[in-house]
Amino acid sequence: MTRPEGSSLRVMSTTFNVGNRRVNDAEMSKWLAKCEHCDVVAVALQEANYLSSSQKRGLAVIAGCTVAGLAGPFGIGAGLALGTTTAGAMVVHSHVMPKIRRAIHKRNPRIPDVERARSPLLSDSDDEAPQKGSEGTPMLSLAIAAAIDRQLFPRGFERAQFVEYGQMRLVVYSRGAAAERRSAKHGMGMAFNKGGLAARVAISRHDRTFDLVFLAAHLPAHEGKKDERTMALTEIFVNLQSVSRDADVTFLMGDLNYRLDNSMLDHATACALIDAQKYDTLHDRDELVSELVGRDPATVLRGFATPSCDFAPTFKLVRKLSYPKYSEKRLPAWCDRVLFKTKSHVGLDLEDYSAAFCVSTSDHKPVTLVATLHKHPPPAVPPRFPPPPDLLTGEPPRRQRAVSAKIVSPPFVEAPKPPPPPPKRPRAAFRLSTPRMIAANRGGSAPPALVVGSALHVDDDDDDDDDDDDDGYPYSS
């Protein structure tokens, strides 16, 4: 296996439940050997609080002082006081004095570096000189971090992220500096050994930048608690979404504790299937497989995928054995898993998915996934079809100069005033004269005759001084 060329990125994601036991250096070297040709290595650890030999010596000194005080004439109070005073002096010597020496070293560079004069009592390097980039950790903290540093630093890696909570650790290594670094953590339970960690890094390879998110989780244990594990994973995703949202590739790894269905399988049958390497039969009873294949649109693992486990279950094994033997206290299961989710413009080529059965210090086995990432360029704009050639000359038409047309709004024109209303037409008023009696002379004249007369009057004036009746018809006599 060689390092990828061009703009590809090879990533190694591995998870291990340490079981609060020190890992042998030779076994760790075999476990992490696949990082040789990788660009990024992410290590998720659970139950990782174990003491180095120097830390154990420090606790022995504290315990000895406490016992000596109890044996004295002043009783329990003197013993507790002496033990507390000794522990405080060790903490001051290991944490306060280096800061003082560092301040003095800045003023006078000729004084040897403080990192070379660290106290051996609380050193996390297991009596070896610390490597570049490794930092001292307090008691009941991570001594395995320095051991992993000793494996990866000589191969050109440096720490890009380090996140811890309780007994969980997440360490991300890269060749070269990471462009972006963000982290978050979420704990559950009173023992500080369950919860989730998130680390986000941006790694550049030539003309591509990969935005990677690594999620480490330790979910509730025991058979028959699938719903509790799913609810815990949902809670972790909600609390870590500020870091894990919209990444190119998301890796989910850890002791997820998904088990085999014990209602369909017993310990003897499971061990017989493992000896016959009939892992497909066990996959049909795997809770994680049923969660992924169930196609439930509301599942928290929507979009994630995991390779098929072509290796024996990684829990629960007997410690300190050179061959795998499963404890009868628990049904064998693939508790330690690595899942991934990619965006559409990122391709993932799986190269390895295996378990390191060479590590014998824990009842779990480390699980490692190695994949090569390819980030596709954005889709190009489709070319426009060229215009047809000239029919007469057969030559392609000349490219006409593009004319930029600007739309100018017309100037504001005041609307014309409406024409004056036409003059009112003259109104004709018809007046009917009342009949009247016209009497002739009685003297030798013709008899009186009845004359009915009418008169037409046109008024140009709108104002009528005549008295009109209520019906609107004017009458005059």
Q: Can you characterise this structure?
A:
GO terms for molecular function: phosphatidylinositol-4,5-bisphosphate 5-phosphatase activity. It comes from Chrysophaeum taylorii. With 477 residues, the protein is an alpha+beta fold. The protein has 3 domains: 9-48 and 141-375, Endonuclease/exonuclease/phosphatase (Deoxyribonuclease I, Chain A); 53-123, no CATH class; 426-477, no CATH class. It has 8 helices and 15 strands. A 6-stranded mixed β-sheet has the order 3-4-2-1-11-10, with helices on one face. A 5-stranded mixed β-sheet has the order 5-6-7-8-9, with helices on one face. It has a two-stranded antiparallel ribbon with strand order 12-15. α1 links the parallel β1 and β2. α2 crosses α3.
The CATH first-level class of the largest domain comes to Alpha Beta
The biggest sheet amounts to: 6 strands, mixed
CATH superfamily of the largest domain: Endonuclease/exonuclease/phosphatase
Tell me the number of strands: 15
N-to-C SSE string, H for helix and E for strand? EHEHHHEEEEEHEHHHEEEEEEE
Separation of termini?
131 Å
GO molecular function: phosphatidylinositol-4,5-bisphosphate 5-phosphatase activity
GO biological process, one term: phosphatidylinositol dephosphorylation
Protein name: Inositol polyphosphate-related phosphatase domain-containing protein
InterPro entries: Endo/exonu/phosph_ase_sf (IPR036691), IP5 (IPR046985), IPPc (IPR000300)
